[in-house]
């Protein structure tokens, strides 16, 4: 899952649909997708670092992601980091549930899970996030037309508004991409105290990215959904967020790698194996 060298200008995510010798294409599709899906979601503008007001409805809008040889498009209302909080909370509850993949919870409990220190709780706002997640449809197509995939983030959502209770179903491929509940808990805890949308996006990316990242500001701005922000302003914002993570110990070092490029390293996870990813 983690890699030793990772740069946005040369980003190696091997296609999840590359098949090993003797492996059928369908088997490669299943195995590779479940191994990389959540990382691709966190390293794209699917859940943008900005909040659009009013929400824009999208139909087959391209997603800026690190998936070579494939075009990804999304339909549904625009998603932001609040929606990602709700999504991660649903994933954790679905992982913890005795009925793996199906979670039952109160909206208040979901809010406390993703924002334990928040003083205010907006039931309707959180419920709207769940509906947006259920309506979101992703389409993936190989550039040469060799494969196609369509999926949803949540398979089903049921809300009892009088009781404030909800039930969600998470598909097996999405659930398999989540890993263990402890990893999800760490990601939610890292994001919970952060107010800035870009900082929350970056926390997700750093948690699933490699131990060493070569960051190109232009690509980082595009992947976080902040392409409209002037580069000068984005550069200041990105450096400030990275410095905050450095102060918190989430990353170990920041080094200059040339104009608008940085090398960021974080403490390596136990058992982490280095790998080099190249994407032209």
Mean pLDDT: 82
Q: What sort of overall outline do the alpha carbons produce when their principal axes are compared?
A: globular
Low-confidence stretches are: 1-23, 273-280
Helix content: 25-40%
Strand order of the largest sheet: 2-3-6-7
* Count, helices: 9
Beta content: 15-25%
Task: Please compute the radius of gyration using only Cα atoms.
Answer: 18 Å
Main sheet characteristics: 4 strands, antiparallel
In total, how many beta strands? 12
Q: Class by helix and strand content? A: alpha+beta
Tell me what the structure shows.
The structure is a single chain. Helix content is 39%, strand content 21%. It is of the alpha+beta class. It has one domain (25-265). Residues 1-23 and 273-280 have low confidence and may be disordered.
List keywords for this structure.
disordered N terminus; alpha+beta; 280 residues; four-stranded antiparallel β-sheet; disordered C terminus; 39% helix
List the helices and strands and how they pair.
Elements (H helix, E strand, L loop, with lengths): L24 H18 L4 E2 L8 E6 L7 E8 L1 E2 H16 L5 E5 H8 L8 H13 L1 E6 L5 E5 L3 E5 L4 E5 L2 H7 L2 H11 L5 H12 L3 E5 H7 L7 H18 L4 E4 L4 E5 L15
Parallel strand pairs: 1-4
Antiparallel strand pairs: 2-3, 3-6, 5-9, 6-7, 8-9, 10-12, 11-12
Helix pairs in contact: 1-5, 2-3, 2-4, 2-6, 7-9
Summarize the structure.
With 280 residues, this protein is an alpha+beta fold. 39% of the residues lie in helices and 21% in strands.
């Amino acid at each position: 899952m983690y890699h030793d060298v990772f740069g946005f200008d040369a980003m190696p995510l091997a296609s999840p649909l590359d098949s090993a010798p003797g492996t059928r294409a369908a088997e490669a599709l299943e195995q590779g997708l479940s191994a990389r899906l959540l990382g691709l979601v966190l390293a794209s503008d699917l859940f943008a670092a900005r909040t659009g007001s009013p929400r824009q409805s999208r139909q087959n809008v391209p997603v800026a992601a690190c998936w070579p040889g494939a075009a990804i498009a999304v339909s549904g209302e625009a998603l932001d980091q609040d929606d990602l909080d709700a999504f991660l909370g649903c994933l954790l509850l679905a992982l913890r549930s005795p009925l793996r993949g199906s979670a039952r919870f109160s909206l208040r409990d979901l809010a406390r899970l993703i924002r334990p220190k928040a003083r205010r709780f907006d039931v309707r706002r959180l419920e709207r996030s769940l509906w947006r997640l259920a309506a979101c449809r992703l389409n993936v197509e190989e550039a040469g037309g060799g494969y196609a995939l369509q999926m949803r983030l949540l398979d089903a959502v049921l809300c009892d508004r009088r009781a404030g209770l909800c039930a969600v179903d998470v598909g097996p491929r999405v659930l398999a991409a989540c890993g263990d509940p402890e990893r999800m808990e760490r990601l939610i805890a890292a994001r919970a105290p952060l107010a800035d949308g870009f900082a929350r996006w970056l926390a997700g990316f750093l948690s699933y990215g490699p131990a060493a990242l070569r960051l190109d500001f232009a690509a980082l701005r595009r992947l976080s959904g902040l392409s409209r922000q002037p580069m000068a302003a984005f550069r200041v914002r990105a450096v400030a967020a990275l410095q905050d993570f450095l102060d918190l110990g989430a990353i170990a070092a920041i080094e200059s790698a040339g104009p608008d490029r940085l090398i960021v390293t974080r403490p390596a996870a136990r058992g982490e194996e280095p790998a080099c990813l190249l994407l032209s």
